Amino acid sequence: MAAPIPLQGTIDLELPRARRVGSSDATSERIRRVMKRIVASYPEFMRRDQLDDVERVAFHVEQVHRPGARLADLGGGIGLFSPACAALGMRTWLVDDFQDSVNHEHPIDDLGVHAGHGVQVVASDVRHWGEHFADASLDVVTSFDSLEHWHHSPRPVFQEAFRVLRPGGTLFLGAPNAVNLRKRVAVPLGRSNWSHFDDWFGPDEFRGHVREPVLGDLLRMMELLGFETKSVWGRNWAGYMRGGARRALTRIIDVPLRAFPTLCADLYVMAVKPG
Fold first, then answer.
1. C-beta separation of 10 from 166 below 8 A
2. Cα–Cα distance measured from residue 40 to residue 30, given in angstroms and rounded to the nearest whole number
3. pTM metric for this prediction
4. Whose CA is closest to 234, among 269, 208, 209?
5. Which residues contact 189 (CB under 8 A, 6 or more apart)?
6. Cα–Cα distance for residue pair 149/157, rounded to 1 Å
7. 157, 127 Cβ separation under 8 angstroms
8. Hey, which of 4, 66, 165, 224 would disulfide with 134, CB 3.0 to 4.6 Å?
């Protein structure tokens, strides 16, 4: 096991307003240019999916981007977020157990994308991730679309986040909403709001959604862990990745729905460790 990472100075992260505090149009454009260059470094057969994910991941990056900040991303797999942060000047660690089927088919070391852009990869079960980091050694901890897959309580995972974050450090979480508008309509019509049957029944080990949160779950989690919640967002990314009528409908309802995060498909909470 690697020695814990020591604290070396601090980086002040500004908190987001509507989009990102201090994130100018020029900065947003630069983030997307960098990400598209990273997409080109993936194997050709992966590029379409990664390119389709640029807007979602750019939203994540915009909220935490600060050159020189130290960031650990939990459960990010082979996605764009951690190499984008590293390429944009953040000291970035990716923590993942790399046990999903895609990781067996395309090992992260073979891809070379993350290491090639300066990401330090920590292959670890998320329950033990804190063992790799010293107290108050990070400025940001992130986790997107990961906690709903865990077969254990998220409490010890984020207790470790509280420990390794410096005072004033940021925890930024994203997860699917268990009671979004689509599910509120679909369930009374007899459609399941759980994982697809084949994803659950077929594999020997189920890696799908175990428990999706609602917004109140995320807010209570932050309170019980001692964080101060600063911002909440709702977004609807999946609809943009589908074709035809669903994509057209998403374009119509997405922006109005953002005023009501509890109805959105994707929930985000940003919190800070009190100084």
1. yes
2. 16
3. 0.87
4. 269
5. none
6. 13
7. yes
8. 4
